[in-house]
Amino acid sequence: MKMILWVFALFVVVCLFVMPLCVFNCSRTDVVTLTPWLAPVVWEGTFNPDLLDSIYLRQDISVAATVFAVGKYIMFLENFLETAEEYFFVGFKVHIYVFTDRPDEVPQVKMAPDRQLTVLPVPSSNRWQEISARRMELIQKLIEEKLRGHLDYIFCLDVDSKFHGRWGTESLSGLVAVIHPGYYWDPRSKFPYERRPQSRAYVAEGEGDFYYCGGAFGGSLEEVHLLAETCRSNFEADAKEGIEAAWQEESHLNRYMWINKPSKVLSPEYLWQDFKSRNPEIHIIRFSGVIKDYAKVRPNV
Question: Catalytic site residue 244?
């Protein structure tokens, strides 16, 4: 009986963890390609794009992307949309949702067949922190009211960014996080987690895995809905007690991802910073935050 249970357990492990990794090539030895909980870490050279695309094309998947172009951040939208057309899930059904308080200023960008854009008006705000904080609420409601039953995956991205290379099916999974480019070589003691125990975003010293970006995350609709709902609830509970986490929604996202491990982790290739020089292990920059003067684009600094 014990032998049967052992064989069954081994079969489950192979089906859930080993087989999904077969489309990934872990030949990179200069970087971490597998987390301690057996989630792949995606870098250039660790996956077969043709094989992955062929698998997902047969499934006829559809992907949503959200961006928030509020206030002067509208100036970044055209570059975001144009480069998304060139690199983001090319050949697949894509629906981009733009949240903005300036719908009349949304640029007209030619989109390929099976790709569309929807503009969703939102109120303006005098604090960029409030704009950042409301993202989780709006993403939650978008999934509940428009996406369920119609799309399969969603990625939530910063508008003040642009694509430089392929972002495709290699990024798909249940819950997907992106390693922050500013901290991926640092020890956990230097991660800017929320360290006040009073906050629901709290991560204690010595705890945590990676430090993840708030500017790029995603996964299946249900997984992202649960993340957004939880982060929103925790943020609002903190606000009632007069607490604002160190990095707003990014702090709450990192707390959530520490407790609920992502099933796939994307390397800093998937959200680099343009003011940084490219490190040797970064073979390609796929998506990056553009250089900007925060004093000119944020309503308060």
Answer: no
